[in-house]
Design brief:
Oligomer: single chain
Mean pLDDT: 86
CATH class of one domain: Alpha Beta
Radius of gyration: 23 Å
Shape: globular
CATH superfamily of one domain: Methylthiotransferase, N-terminal domain
Number of helices: 13
């Protein structure tokens, strides 16, 4: 079972993945032998998987995965997982059973860096002889720091993730071999691909990487580089492959999703993808992950409004409702532009639901600035807030800013923001009471008689239906609210019969 560890929400791109049912890891039924190279490292004779001599008892090699951070990281971990499974490995959720530990790191805050170091040391203590492979944004910017941690076998850059397994085979098997890989060109789109999404009821599809913005607080752009887009035909091909594997919903994800297509030789934009994907038989939902306010165009709004398969939900980061704070953040919009955009979305898309990010305690943020953020949230009524304190990141301009906000003041503002979130969530939930919505089942608790899932609008719903199966969609009548969940009951066994 793979770990997905929540960190602070992404400041630039994909928000963290939601809690979903985790299924048992898939097992491959074949493994392949290896042969020694002349330099003492191990290389494959076919698809490599076992280092055992032919006279030793057979034991398939095992690997454990942990992922911190955003949806993009989760997608990339799945692609790496499939590399290892094709190589004959078996996935395990137990560190003591793992021969290899692959950690896909996040570096959006100092806390996510600390979590990465903790996980590396925890695995090394539990399995000193195990191999540790570290990749992700923390490894991208702090490679030497990570390599100094006892037990680390190999660090791999983000743009080398498509070759991670091969790099491990060449460099990671023997401590005398080179510990790090040579970097690929920074502007290359790493050709990762998946055919399944372990433990998820909906599948993420990476369509874009990198960012062309330069927010003063953001380290992710330093780790991911400039925007690169995946060719349209590769996106459609992967979505079709995932639908064939049984997925009804795909989530298009990237760091700056709205920049998709600008760098392609044949200019094909996000709206073009939204025109092609609904033609895939069996694909019933297309969801967009986090997108910048300045990237939500009139054409995109029109495409969402006219296509019933595109979910009426967007995650649009606010960060702050105060213009002077937005300017110091180097955000490319101001308060009025953000509120006007949300009103336009609500006026164009039936039952549109917003989720957003809010940063608390950016240097120089006054109590009046925070109150302006509260006012914008009251006006735009997001269903969910990702609330996080400012964290100075080395290499960013904001790390040098003065006028830091006192920690007790940050805690107080965070508490007020969490209280506001509860109130705003309930407002959104109340609008759906008495309506029937289609819910994609994610987790079934048969002993309790409940199934939980998400509606097209991203609402978290708990409902009762006999024999519910994760991954299927059920029409559910909303009857009451309990905390962060809407409660209801399935009105039929068939799907896609909502009245919203």
């Amino acid at each position: 079972m793979a770990e997905v560890i929540a960190t602070a929400p992404s400041l630039r791109g994909s928000e963290p993945g939601e809690d979903e049912a985790i299924s048992e890891p898939r097992l491959l039924r074949h493994c392949f032998g290896t042969q020694p190279r002349n330099d003492g490292c191990v290389m494959s004779s076919s698809l490599p998987g076992s280092l055992l001599r032919s006279d030793e008892p057979f034991r398939r090699k095992t690997v454990k995965f942990s992922t911190l951070g955003c949806r993009l990281n989760q997608y990339e971990t799945q692609a790496i997982r499939e590399q290892f499974l094709r190589g004959g490995y078996e996935e395990t959720g137990d560190a003591q059973d793992a021969d290899v530990f692959v950690l896909n790191t996040c570096s959006v805050t100092s806390e996510s860096d600390r979590q990465s170091r903790y996980l590396i040391r925890r695995f090394h203590r539990s399995k000193p002889e195990g191999k540790v492979v570290v990749t992700g944004c923390y490894a991208e910017r702090n490679r030497e720091e990570i390599e100094a941690i006892p037990g680390v076998t190999l660090t791999v850059l983000n743009r080398e993730k498509s070759e991670l397994y091969d790099l491990f085979e060449r460099h990671g098997r023997d401590p005398s071999c080179l510990r790090r890989a040579e970097p690929a060109p920074r502007r290359r789109f790493a050709p990762l691909q998946i055919s399944h999404f372990e433990g998820r009821s909906r599948a993420y599809v990476k369509v874009q990487d990198g960012c062309n913005h330069a927010c003063s607080f953001c380290k992710v752009v330093l780790a991911r580089g400039p925007s690169r887009s995946r060719p349209v035909e590769k996106v459609v091909e992967e979505a079709r492959r995932l639908v064939d594997d049984g997925y009804l919903e795909v989530v298009l994800t990237g760091i700056q999703l709205g920049a998709y297509g600008y760098d392609l030789r044949k200019r094909q934009m996000l709206v073009d993808l939204l025109g092609l994907l609904p033609q895939i038989p069996g694909l019933e939902r297309i969801r967009l992950s986090s997108i910048e306010p300045t990237d939500v165009t009139d054409e995109l709004i029109s495409s969402m409004a006219s296509n019933p398969k595109v979910c009426p939900h967007l995650h649009i980061p606010l960060q702050s409702g105060a213009d002077q704070v937005l300017e110091r953040m180097n955000r490319r919009y101001r308060r009025s532009a953000y509120t006007d955009l949300i009103h336009q979305l609500r006026g164009s898309i039936n039952n549109f639901v917003l989720t957003t990010d809010v940063m608390i305690g950016f240097p120089g943020e006054t109590s009046e600035d925070f109150e302006q953020t509260v006012e914008v949230l009251e006006e735009t009524e997001p269903y969910k807030l990702h609330i996080f304190p400012f964290s100075p990141r080395e290499g960013t301009r904001a790390a040098r800013f003065q006028n830091t906000v006192a920690s007790d003041e940050v805690r107080g503002r965070r508490h007020l923001a969490y209280q506001l979130e509860k109130k705003l969530r309930r407002r959104v939930q109340e609008r759906f009471l008495g309506h029937t919505v289609d819910v994609l089942a994610e987790e079934t608790r048969r002993g309790q008689g409940w199934t939980t899932g998400r509606s097209r609008h991203y609402l978290k719903v708990r409902f009762s239906v006999p024999g519910a199966q994760p991954g299927l969609c059920y029409p559910v009548r909303m009857t009451q609210i309990e905390g962060d969940e809407l409660l209801g009951y399935a009105v039929a066994d068939s799907v896609f019969q909502s009245d919203t």
